[in-house]
Amino acid sequence: MYWEVGVKIDSEAGQVTVHPAALEQSKWDNAMEHALEMAQALYPKKRIEFLYIKEYETSDAGSC
Predict the structure, then answer these.
(1) CA 62/CA 44 separation, integer angstroms
(2) How many CB atoms lie within 10 A of CB 2?
(3) pTM value?
(4) Each residue of 25-54: pLDDT tens digit?
(5) Can you tell me whether residue 51 is helix, strand or coil?
(6) Is the dihedral of CA 20, 56, 53, 35 positive or negative?
(7) Secondary element (H or E) of residue 31
(8) Domains of the chain, residue spans
């Protein structure tokens, strides 16, 4: 599983992909918080807005 978090930095929209390994708990709200904190750390003087979050399931290797 992983999440794509849409963010807007000033007037530029973009997306951050978050994998569970980067999180303390593998939940959508932790993924959203992680993405927003990352954007704020990279662009501390910019306005950061949350746009959306999408969750994707990944298939395990070797399963049918």
Answers:
(1) 43
(2) 16
(3) 0.83
(4) 999 999 999 999 999 999 999 999 999 999
(5) strand
(6) positive
(7) helix 28-42
(8) 2-56
